[in-house]
Amino acid sequence: MLNQFFGHFLLNKGMLTQGQLCAVLQSEQQIKVKLGILAVDAGLMTAAQVVRIHQLQLSKDKRFGELAIQEGYLTSQQVDRLLEFQQQGHLTLMQAIADNGYMTLAEVAAALADFRKEYDITENSLDIDTNNEVIKKMLDFAAAGDRAELLYDYVGLLLRNVVRFLNDTPFICAPITEGEQDHKWYASQQIIGDIALSTGMIMDEAVMLEIASRFYGEKLSEVDEMALGSIGEFLNVNNGVFGSSMSDNDLMTDLQAPVVKSGDINFYATNYRVAVGTSFGQFELILSFKK
Amino acid sequence: MARIMIVDDALMMRTTLRRILEKAGHEIVGEAINGEQAIVNYAKCQPDLVTMDLTMPGLGGIEAIKRIIQSDSAARIIVVSALGQKHIIFDALQNGAKNYVLKPILEDKLLSVVDLVLEQTGRAAAKG
Fold first, then answer.
1. According to the CATH classification, is domain B3-105 in 3.40.470.10?
2. Domains along chain A with CATH numbers
3. Cβ contacts (< 8 Å) between B12 and chain A: which residues?
4. Which residue in the set A216, A239, A240 is minimally distant from B12, CB to CB?
5. Computed over its alpha carbons, how large is the radius of gyration of chain A?
6. ipTM value of the model?
7. What is the pLDDT of residues B47-91, one digit of tens each?
8. Fewer C-beta neighbours within 10 Å, C or N terminus of chain B?
9. Contact yes or no for B103 and A253 at CB 8 A
10. Which of A222, A225, A235, A237 to probe the B interface (max B CBs under 10 A)?
């Protein structure tokens, strides 16, 4: 979960463009994190020391860990421990950024330190409460008054479900302007009961097909009943989980059947929009309370 | 193995359920996309078991469960739904559903619930 927020941080600070972040997320999943990144992240080596070891590797046929021990930067126990951590999520993002050449290792490490400080994050993985606290610093639903907490919870859940069901790292980004967006598809579902919340996702056809494909688990190439059903089900499952979490607060809700359509869409006057970026494109989440 | 009818408005879900159940050796004898169709097709197909979504356009799953049970008190209906709230699960079970599987579906979970319901309700004896 740290990845999505770190990605958003880099975007907001202008350290990466949205296109660069998408490219990084696309390559992220294939990456095995290098020991140098792990060592810097753990505070065991500086970026300059890692660069020196990389330079030594060019002339000596030895692994990073061996050279780091030889140069006195790491102990063998530290190398063993780092090898155990080699698949940690946020580090693959750092690796992907460095591998793509968008930032140097030192710059990524410094950005991560700034990010942790700005959002008061001390752990490498976030529990749900911390997750939502970070979201509150990124989004402003104050206009929703005492219902704002529901919106933060909803956004947090949706972002986690993009990770869980779509196997991607979402990030909050700037919305695409009207003229730049291709033909739009709109998936919507009404939550009714103690909370009356209209939920929807707007996206272009390519993004819609990608979400549908990933959720279904097979490639879908055209907008047919299968694709429409899949995107509707993604929203349905997300809202079902949301409803279950609301019942923990004694709020009883039900769902109407999801609807997926294209063309002009009318929204409630007061709605809350969150643009969500992924490695395959962007969709806009639209939430509004029915009176 | 059992003769099963699948009820869900999403083709993607019906396809997924069909694949899981057929792989386990069950026969899919009918499908329905809403509650009205479920009632009609139940009478036509007389399945051993039904998987029933709750959130569908038109007549929803709870009402369909009620009416199918009214027509056949031995009907075996398993709810397969994204709605996981206690009052909804309770409602479904009170109206005659035998068990409940939450979406997103886990293949093993679905199949174990199907087996459990068939075993508990003595399929062969009930339809004899």
1. no
2. 2-118 (no CATH), 139-289 (3.40.1550.10)
3. 212, 215-216, 226, 229-230, 233
4. A216
5. 21
6. 0.90
7. 999 999 999 999 999 999 999 999 999 999 999 999 988 889 999
8. C
9. no
10. A237
